[in-house]
Amino acid sequence: MNASASLPPREIAPDAPSKTKRKRDMHALQDLGAELVALDAKRLASLDLPERLVDAIALARTITRHEARRRQMQYIGRLMRDVDPEPLRVALAAGASGSQAERAQFALVERWRDRVLQEADGVDAFTAAYPDAPRETLASLATAARDERDRGAPPHKSRELFRTLKRIIEGAPR
């Protein structure tokens, strides 16, 4: 007699997710855990995660062997089941867009610094774009930075010019 024929049919709750969906959700949590492992310590601390999860993430950062790291990532995925993933996804998305905006602003400041240093009318162009900028200060910093570059000295004045331009651009109304 067949042993499986004597077992009663398995009852499946109508609202229960399929095995495929459960597996997909577990992989999504594991991927979210991998994003958490990639975060820097400061951002990770700001997320208010359970201590066991933070410890598992810290341990995963130290593991270099492939199989051991894979198992640790699975463990992190299992710990993620006890955490609401939506606030984490929102925080990670906000952090990604924030860092993208920071990179764009950094590139803008670099372009202005290069223009102020390389073009004769660079200071005038900057003060036209940012009317509250102190023209005399920028002109003297640009001259000092050019002299510094020509002498082959460390770029102290160039960095000071960059910081000044950054403060002005950050303070400008958008």
Shape: elongated
- Based on CA atoms alone, the radius of gyration comes out at 28 Å
Distance between the termini: 80 Å
| Poorly predicted regions | none
Write down how many β-strands occur, each being a DSSP E stretch of 2 or more residues. Answer: 0
Quickly count the helices. 8
Total domains, how many? 2
CATH superfamily of the largest domain: PSPTO4464-like domains
Share of β-strand residues: under 5%
CATH fold category name of the largest domain: Diphtheria Toxin Repressor, domain 2
The CATH level-2 architecture of the largest domain is identified as: Orthogonal Bundle
Brief summary of the model shown:
By secondary structure, the chain is mostly helical. It has eight helices and no strands.
Which key terms come to mind for this protein?
single chain, 174 residues, mainly alpha, Diphtheria Toxin Repressor, domain 2, 2 domains, 8 helices, 73% helix, 0% strand, elongated
List the helices and strands and how they pair.
Layout: H1 19-38, H2 41-45, H3 51-62, H4 66-80, H5 85-118, H6 122-129, H7 135-151, H8 156-171
Helix pairs in contact: 1-3, 1-4, 3-4, 5-6, 5-8, 7-8
